[in-house]
């Protein structure tokens, strides 16, 4: 979550300093490093037979695992989606868009309530917390803004945003 938030901030700062290419470059390089780290965290099994983003790693980035953060699984993935979308918007790095789509699909396949709408807390915890869904809403808005206008997922993401807004109302 922290790495994703840093990546998002750096991507946004690079756009804020667009008039100063030197300053913008510093932030964009920081966002690129953060994005690379998030990509490295993809692929952990969690002993659930599913792949996702490691939420806990050792200081050197190894030994990715869920750890005691089970209640943060969807929350953490929401921030990774938020960061990847913002980095794509700032950099046009197609790998960032691909990664954002991968995270979005992971969440839809494993944590989305297709019957009642909204996102579950974890892959196995069927509670829906306001905090988790608020961060999913933020991530989906950032993802929607970054998606090219002709992208196939755009209407679906717009529908998810409307659905979550309606739930909050």
Task: Summarize the helices and strands and which ones pair or pack.
Layout lengths: L1 H15 L4 H20 L1 E3 L7 E2 L19 H19 L2 H17 L19 H17 L7 H15 L1
Antiparallel strand pairs: 1-2
Helix pairs in contact: 1-2, 1-3, 2-3, 3-4, 3-5, 5-6
Fraction in helix: 55-70%
**Category from helices, strands and their pairing:** mainly alpha
- Oligomeric state: single chain
Strand fraction: under 5%
Number of helices: 6
Distance between the termini: 27 Å
Give the low-pLDDT segments: none
The SSE string, one letter per element, is HHEEHHHH
* Shape annotation: globular
Order of strands across the main sheet: 1-2
Radius of gyration, CA atoms, in whole angstroms: 16 Å
- Average pLDDT confidence is 89
Q: Please provide the count of β strands.
A: 2
For the report, how would you describe the main beta sheet? 2 strands, antiparallel
């Amino acid at each position: 979550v922290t790495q994703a938030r840093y990546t998002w901030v750096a991507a946004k700062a690079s756009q804020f300093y667009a008039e100063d290419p030197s300053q913008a470059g510093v932030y964009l390089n920081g966002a690129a490093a953060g994005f690379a780290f998030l990509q490295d965290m993809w692929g952990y099994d969690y002993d659930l037979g599913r792949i996702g983003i490691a939420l806990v790693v050792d200081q050197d980035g190894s030994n990715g695992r869920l750890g005691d953060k089970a209640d943060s699984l969807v929350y953490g993935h929401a921030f990774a989606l938020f960061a990847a979308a913002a980095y794509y918007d700032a950099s046009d790095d197609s790998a960032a868009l691909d990664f954002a789509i991968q995270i979005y699909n992971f969440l839809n396949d494993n944590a989305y309530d297709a019957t009642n709408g909204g996102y579950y807390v974890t892959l196995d915890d069927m509670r829906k917390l306001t905090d988790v869904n608020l961060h999913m809403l933020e991530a989906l808005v950032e993802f929607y803004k970054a998606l090219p206008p002709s992208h196939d997922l755009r209407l679906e993401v717009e529908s998810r945003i409307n659905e979550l807004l309606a739930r909050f109302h």
